[in-house]
Amino acid sequence: MDTVENAEDVQSDESEYEEIAHTAAEVLELMEEAWLNEKFAPEILPHKYDIVECLLGQISHVEENLTNVGNDDLRRSLHQMELDRLRYLVSSYLRMRLEKIETYVYFILKQEEERSQKGEENYLNKNELEFAKAYMQSLDQHFTDRLHFWPGNIPTEWKNQLIIPNIHSFVFMKAKNEIEGVMVSHVNEEEEVVDLRTGSQILISYSNVGHFIKTNQSCLI
Amino acid sequence: MYGESACSLVKELDRNRGTLPPYNNELIGEVEKEICHLIQQNVADDFKAHEDSNVGAGLDYTATIRTRHAIIQRNLRCLLAYHYNRLRCLRTMRWEFGSILPPDIKVNLSHAESNWFSKYSSMLATYMRSIGDDGGVNLTIDLNPPKALYIEVKCLVDYGQYELSDGSLVLLKESNRYFLPRAECEDLIRQGVFQHIIN
């Protein structure tokens, strides 16, 4: 938890920015949680672009402040290090999302379409959606080009064999609130109901708890 | 035997995990020929079956046609798997080497694959530009969690002058050691100009 402590350094260092620095620590915590959730969840989660953009704003803000600090100042290298950490956090988060989008592109786009038909919130950000569409189109193009030798109609059945995330994989989960009635399914089709107390941790199949992550009642660790 | 060349295509993939062997035009041609041949036979048999059924008697072609169809499907799947996995590999290389591939990898690509690569590069660039408010974020740096601000690197080639992001110039010479900001080195390390020295 180095990063959190360091964020507080920023706070005490620059008292004039105390107001911003305080929210920065909170933003960081949210970002870290989103990052961990995304890292351990097998499927793509609703995007957290508001946090990302807020943190990016903070980064450029601190960068601006740093230009006023001398090159050989100790504070400079401390803050620079901190900035590097933050930048890693953000880019790693976005990279992981991109990787998931690329791997499950057909599946994700299909789900997104169903979501917009139902009027639900999209999981992908607008830019991500554009990227996903462009990526899928490039794959389609590449494959159809390759199949031009085919006599007659080019087969398209392969599009039905989607690569889908394994949502039954096991994850470590920590409950943020009191959660009652978590269904735990067993191999032999039996179901058990468990109540989770605040802060309790459990190793469980993602399919049982995915919706708690999305509704922010629990997080993955 | 039917399906053999498709199988060796997939085996080739499996043997060369994480690397891109030359695009196997020859084997792919064989698979394509086999598919075409089988489809032609199926069409011919289908035609014959129709004729026979009009006459009222004749052989039952269903089993043969079904077997051929299964082979065609399998060949198709192997073919697509081969191409898909090469693209995935190419994608990893985009992240490793940036938008310009080293020449020894470039020769192994088919024409369509080079096209795809540049398309992927540009869509990735568009996406990275769109993040945040000011000019986007380069996602291809900061690949590993940062440990220290400066790292020690050894220069492997005579690179010449290199400009750091604060505007100062460094002359990079072969087998010299430098102590530079990590963010500046990352790209050069991946390009093979620097070697990261880990104590």
Search tags:
heterodimer, A: 221 residues, alpha+beta, Methane Monooxygenase Hydroxylase, Chain G, domain 1, Ribosomal Protein L9, domain 1, three-stranded antiparallel beta sheet, 5 strands, disordered N terminus, B: 199 residues, mainly alpha, 2 domains, two-stranded antiparallel ribbon
Description of the structure:
The complex is a heterodimer of chains A (221) and B (199). With 221 residues, chain A is an alpha+beta fold. Chain A has helices at residues 2-13, 18-40, 49-66, 74-103, 105-118, 126-146, 206-214, and strands at residues 170-175, 179-185, 191-196, 201-205, 218-220. Chain A contains seven helices and five strands, in the order ααααααββββαβ. In chain A, a hairpin with a 5-residue loop joins strand 2 and strand 3 (191-196). In chain A, helix 1 runs antiparallel to helix 2, helix 1 (2-13) crosses helix 4 and helix 2 crosses helix 3. Chain A is flat, with a radius of gyration of 22 Å. With 199 residues, chain B is mostly helical. Chain B has two domains: 4-96, Methane Monooxygenase Hydroxylase, Chain G, domain 1; 150-196, Ribosomal Protein L9, domain 1 (3-Layer(aba) Sandwich). The longest helix of chain B has 36 residues, at 62-97. The A-B interface holds A 52-53, 56-57, 60, 77, 80-81, 84-85, 87-88, 90-92, 94-95, 98, 102, 127-128, 130-131, 134-135, 138-139, 141-143, 145-147, 149-152, 155, 158 and B 32, 35-36, 39-40, 76-77, 79-80, 83-84, 87, 91, 112-113, 116, 119-120, 123-124, 126-127, 130-134, 137-139, 141-142, 144-146, 148-149, 182-183.
